[in-house]
Amino acid sequence: MDFQVVVLAGGTSKNLTPLVSKEVPKPLLPVANRPVLYYVLHQLEQSNLKDLIVVVEGKDAALLVGGWISGTFVDRLHVEIAAVPEDIGSAGAIRAISHHLTANDILVVSGDLVSDVPPGAVAANHRRHDAVVTAMLCSVPISGPSESGSSGGKDKTKKPGRYNIIGLDPGKQFLLHIATGAEIEKDTRLQKRILRAVGEMEIRSDLMDAHMYAFKRSVLQEVLDRKDTLQSLKQDVLPYLVRSQLKSEALLNRIPRAEENGNEKVSSQNNQVMVSQILANASTPSFHDLCSVSHDGSAPIRKTHKCCAYIASSSSYCARLNSIQAFMDINRDVTGEADHLLSSISDHNNIVGPSTKLGTKTTVGPHCMLGEGSEMGDKCQVKRSVIGRHCRIGSHVKVVNSVVMNHVTIGDGCIIQGSVICSNVQLQERVVLKDCQVGAGFVVTAGSEYKGESLARKEK
To answer: What are the Nucleotidyl transferase domain coordinates in residue numbering (predicted)?
Structure first.
């Protein structure tokens, strides 16, 4: 049976307030004037992976997402929409739909992933190695992920985010260790037992987990059923499978408990660290060689399963829309350095919509997008920004490093820098915004100036 695909599309997200709303759940947030979910579904379609379950948090959000998919991918994909409770976690979402999973292998991908890596390549790698899990790893952006900070400026000067510490075999095929997020500070610890068993491990901190996984369904369901406290695929399920993939009867029986639980510190400051052999005779060419004896020949080693890694090319584009900063960056990238993602899914060159009207002496710089039906007055400037559909923009308006969604009205003399303006917002004359987010339907009164503010209507 072919792969079944589960797209974890999310719903509301505290990290994206006030961009998300009841009317615009996270999967429908616009990236270059297309919902972010489009990019994942398009890549799956290109890989001929068309049997999908799209999981959305909340019934109302699921109805909106399902309606959009039906209108956009009619007769192209076989999609089942599944609504799950909010804040259930990625592992909880899989538990909730487990009765729908029937294929031998399951591909799970985050609906906020914007990437040009073919999902079919991850699936093929998984089948080739007969793995229980294959995780896609990609290069951390040069600028580093950031949860907050200014979106302005000509270049990205964000601080590096937390490290991901990933251990690979010398052939870079098998995942031997993974620690992410809150687990990582200045150092991480590896069990000596694992180091003894594998002989040699390459430690990487320049790779990130892209949240695209191929699982053997039977193993995934068994783990989720048996370990009902596991909440996250990335932080709980994947590390659990990696930790449990090698069980050496020889080491477990022979090494005293205190030594077995001993840890080796590995500095995360080094991009690549080759952990030297712990035992003189531990020099097997690959972790998963089909050997039936331990490294010293004394007793058999029992391997339980294989955890594999698919490492995307360093030239690949891979980002997740999981923060306001990421939302800004991805919009800018897709209309700039990663514009091949846009051209591959566009029917025509819609960087400037066919019905857009520009006033006299209005300039639109490179790496910008103006949605169809939008109008701009005289002497406006737009730089490195995305403007949605059917916007009304007055004269002498300056928009820099910003995202303006659909049906926005901007009065004369406004200056918008490093900001996100959600749909149906009204900015009256001479408003100045720098590094702000304005929620849907909000009205900013004339002459107001804000810096680093989040402006939104109170929920009723």
So the answer is: 5-147
Helices (H) and strands (E) in the chain, counts: 11, 37
Asked if 324 and 19 count as a contact pair (C-beta separation under 8 A), the reply is yes
378/381 Cα distance (integer angstroms): 9
Alpha carbon distance 229, 46 (integer Å): 36
> Helices in 48-138 by DSSP H: which ranges?
59-72, 90-96, 119-129
CB 287 within 8 A of CB 306: no
Average pLDDT over residues 142-162: 43
β-strand pairing of 302-303 with 357-358: unpaired
How many Å apart are CA 408 and CA 114, to the nearest integer? 25
Question: What are the structure tokens assigned to 36, written together?
Answer: 């972010």
Q: Enter the DSSP assignment of 335.
A: T
CA distance 275 to 256: 22
Q: Can you tell me the distance from the alpha carbon of 339 to that of 435, in angstroms, rounded to the nearest whole number?
A: 24
Residue 185 exposed, middle or buried by CB count within 10 Å (0-12, 13-18, 19+): exposed
Side chain identity, residue 53: I
Give yes or no for a cis peptide into 18 (omega within 30° of 0). Answer: yes
C-alpha 233/C-alpha 240 separation (Å) is: 9
Give the burial string for 189-226 (b: 16+ CB within 10 Å, else e). Answer: ebebbbbbbbbbbbbbbebbbbbbbbbbbeebbebbee
Query: Is residue 84 within 8 Å of 27, Cβ to Cβ?
Result: no
* Position 116 pLDDT exceeds 70: yes
Please determine, for residue 342, whether its predicted confidence score (pLDDT) is greater than 50.
yes
SS3 state at 58: coil
Task: Assess contact for 57 and 84: CB atoms under 8 A.
Answer: yes
Q: How many whole angstroms separate alpha carbon 328 and alpha carbon 216?
A: 36
CA–CA dist 203, 283 (Å, integer)? 17
- pLDDT of 290 > 50? The answer is no
Name which of 162-176, 244-258, 338-352, 407-421 the model is least confident about: 244-258
- Tell me the one-letter amino acid at 142: I
Q: What is the DSSP secondary-structure string of 361-386? A: T-EE-SS-EE-TT-EE-TT-EEES-E
Which among 144, 436, 11, 435 has a CA at the least distance from the CA of 425? 436
pTM: 0.83
